[in-house]
Specification:
The chain is an alpha/beta fold. It folds into two domains: about 160 residues, Flavodoxin domain (Rossmann fold, 3-Layer(aba) Sandwich), CATH 3.40.50.360; about 80 residues, Alpha-Beta Plaits (2-Layer Sandwich), CATH 3.30.70. Helix 1 packs across helix 5. The longest helix has 13 residues.
């Protein structure tokens, strides 16, 4: 079983390739919490690194997993450059559940959070030239049942950046804000949000609906990158169409939750 968390398709593309190569089913991590997966002999967890650690929403999803201590559990982290404490944190969380993390690795991909700092993630596409070799290595090692933890060390800097106060500050600054003047109420953002954090409500003018964000944002920026009207701002910056990103192997429909 491959469980993934993905906002703009990087982790989904990796999870799909792993699922196909290992002949395993695929499921969004957000849907797996509370589901009995104790009959699964192999569990893969694929998610991105946010500020050198787990995305804010992922720890709760991991805590809700019901998997067997006898399962072969592995993780592959997608990141702009460094996985930080992602693997170390996941290993600790699983250990508290009596689960051993058997294998870990990372895959470097374009950083979709670059948009929040005025940069263009589409200028990082050259990273994809290194992905096939890394995926070939990962798949080969997983098929062999490798018990190797790549990139699993502890980083003090990553730990400091992952403190709750820092996370709250990140969400406050980078959390998407809706510009009602641009929003057409199409509802794409409500369907792409993995946290069900966006709803459509009557606009102030009352003649159409507009997107409204809630208090459960995990700063994945899925809504920002998927909005056809560029109606979201992040970190006070307007969204430019040229800076919106989605993994080339993934279509918008692949990311819609309902």
């Amino acid at each position: 079983m491959l469980l993934y968390f993905s906002a703009t398709g990087n982790s989904l593309a990796v999870a799909r390739q792993l699922a196909e190569a290992l002949n395993e089913p695929l499921m969004p991590l957000v849907d797996a919490a509370g589901v009995d997966l104790t009959n699964q002999q192999r569990i893969g967890l694929v998610f991105p690194s946010y500020d050198f650690n787990l995305p804010p929403a992922v720890p709760a999803m991991i805590s809700g997993l019901i998997i067997s201590p006898r399962s072969y559990v592995f993780t592959v982290v997608t990141c702009g450059s460094m996985a930080g404490n992602c693997i170390w944190t996941l290993r600790r969380m699983l250990r508290e559940k009596g689960i051993v993390l058997a294998y870990s690795h990372k895959v470097s991909v374009p950083d979709n959070s670059a948009l929040a700092f005025g940069r263009n993630p589409n200028r990082q596409l050259k990273k994809f030239q290194y992905v096939p070799a890394r995926m070939e290595q990962i798949i080969s090692e997983l098929k062999a049942g490798s018990r190797t933890l790549h990139y699993s060390w502890f980083s003090l800097l990553s730990w400091l950046l992952g403190r709750p106060a820092v996370t709250r500050g990140m969400i406050h600054c980078m959390g998407p804000k809706v510009n009602p003047a641009k929003c057409t109420g199409c509802g794409i953002c409500t369907r792409v949000c993995p946290m069900d954090n966006i709803t459509l409500q009557p606009s102030a003018a009352g003649n159409q609906q507009t997107a409204v964000t809630g208090n459960n944002c995990t700063v994945c920026l899925a809504c920002v990158h998927a909005c056809s009207q560029q109606a979201f701002t992040t970190n006070g910056l307007q969204t430019c169409k040229e800076r919106q990103y989605r993994n080339p192997q993934i279509q918008l429909k692949d990311l819609l939750r309902r």
